[in-house]
Design a protein that fits this description.
6 strands, 283 residues, 56% helix, single chain, alpha/beta
Length: 283
Amino acid sequence: MRAARLCLIGLLAFLATAANAQVFWSVIDDEGRQNWLLGTVHSEDPRLLDFPPELIEALQQSERLALELVPDMTMLERLQQAMHFDNGGLHEVLDEALYEEVVRILGESYGMGEPAVRRLRPWAAGMTLSVPPPQTGLFMDLALSFRASGMGLDVIALETLDEQLDFLKGMSQEAQIELIQTAVKEHENMPETFERLVAAYLAGDLDELEALSQHQLEGMDEEVAHHFNEVGLKQRNHIMLERALPHLEQGGLMIAVGALHLVGDEGLVRLLEEKGFRLEGVY
């Protein structure tokens, strides 16, 4: 289960950076119904868990919280099953030197033994290596889910686990191996990178956030970059909006998704505006 949590955090954190002046938006339709849109960073950094009063007040006014996925035990158990080989192992996919380096890092930093590493699918190994080892497991989205549930909000998902897994499985094996190679290469710099990401998010440093976002894909094969941008972001943005619309039309919805989903010509801010909603930045 620990490995599943690591992989889930890795999957979400890869898509968490944004280049936009606002991360929290008021969303109002033409009849005055109030909704909200929050960009998140999928991290357990305590600075992110100290929710601003504007966010708490908005939660108090909301009836539902919509996340990419609801991180409950059922979902985590299914994720754990999906991230492991049924037959074969990671050692048969990677060359010996790379495999030994993956085993070393996951053992020393993440507390995973070689038998557990051997069972990981390449995408699962790559995403686990892409984030710092969690200390508490209480990342921002999970904390927000707990807070909302405690306040009596319904917590719903805008995607299914199968859809997010299909996004990862959609990469060729070569691309998944490249993801591992990049994560291994950047491992020593990862704490500094995440510190810069969190600090930029809190400070609203747009240039830094954009640079960090691009750095995630820098040097990777064109297939990987295209897959993450087109499938991981744009296609998912349209799906999430379509599923959120019935709830938005009722009012009282807060959408909380990785902040990169908010920006760009096909980001949720622009897509909501095209649907006739009026968006105003809160912070």
